[in-house]
Structure formats: C-alpha cells, structure tokens
Amino acid sequence: MVASTPPQSWIIPRPIVNRILTHAMQTAPQECVGLLSGNQRQIKGWHPMTNHWHHERRFLADPSQQIQIMKELRSRGEEIVAIYHSHPQAAAQPSYRDLQESHYPDALYLIVSLDTLGRLDMNGFLLRDGTAEPQELTLCD
C-alpha cells in the first residue's frame, strides 16, 4: 500500500545513482542490495553488498559485509541514510515483501527497476508499518 503523505526531498549525487544502476545491471537477474551513507537527507557514500540469497525477487544484505560497513562508518562519524535494491523484472515500487521486511523506518529505501526501455526508473520511499511513503529525490552533480 502506498501512503499519500507529501514527499520530502533527498539529495543524491549523479555519480552514486550511476553506481547503483551499474550494480543493478551487473547482478541481474538477481536483485542487488547496498547501503548509502551521509547525513540527514544528503547522500554522500555508496556501499554495495552481496545479496546473500542470490535471488531474483528477494534480497538479504550479506550480514558480515553489513557489519563491516557499519563499523567503518561509525568510526568515521557517518551513518546509514538509505538502503537500495533492484527489481530486475518489476517496477520501482515496494513489493509486499519489501513492506513486510523493512526494518529501518527512518532510512530511505531506493528501488531501481531494470524492467524499462533504456531509461532510469528509480523511486524512493520511507517504509513504515506496512506502508510506503513516496519521497522526492533530487539529483545533483
């Protein structure tokens, strides 16, 4: 279910968007997953991870990679602000499973669809209590 609250802007550098898209294309037909670091609504760092489940419609960030990235970020005073994953054969909208398995209500969930005809299809959401709140994404150079 998609909620109808007003969108809020998140700032994402184009080079990071390009890295996310490349990661999604390289891991297809499996879903990709990764973390984005920064502060508040400004994304500054890209941290790709292995999909532990190697699945086409589900993802689980490799637990050991996740712990290592979180330790490194903490030591630098950074935080996780977003989680991204791909939908190789579906729209850039949260699936029922995405809604049920989201555990970070303050993190932006970015979903990239590869089910497009040569255009970027990426949307951001806050996933809370089984609902998806669309978020405005602002790309910067």
Characterization of this structure:
- This protein is an alpha/beta fold.
- It has a single domain, classed as Cytidine Deaminase, domain 2 (3-Layer(aba) Sandwich).
- The protein has 3 helices and 7 strands.
- It has a 7-stranded mixed sheet.
- A hairpin with a 2-residue loop joins strand 2 and strand 3.
- The radius of gyration is 14 Å and the shape is globular.
- The termini are far apart.
- 30% of the residues are buried.
- Residues 1-6 have low confidence and may be disordered.
Layout of helices and strands, plus pairs?
Elements: E1 9-13, H1 14-27, E2 33-39, E3 42-49, H2 63-75, E4 79-87, H3 96-101, E5 108-113, E6 121-128, E7 131-140
Parallel strand pairs: 1-7, 4-5
Antiparallel strand pairs: 2-3, 2-4, 5-6, 6-7
Summarize the structure.
The protein has one domain (9-140): Cytidine Deaminase, domain 2 (3-Layer(aba) Sandwich). Helix content is 23%, strand content 38%. It has 3 helices and 7 strands; from the N terminus they run βαββαβαβββ.
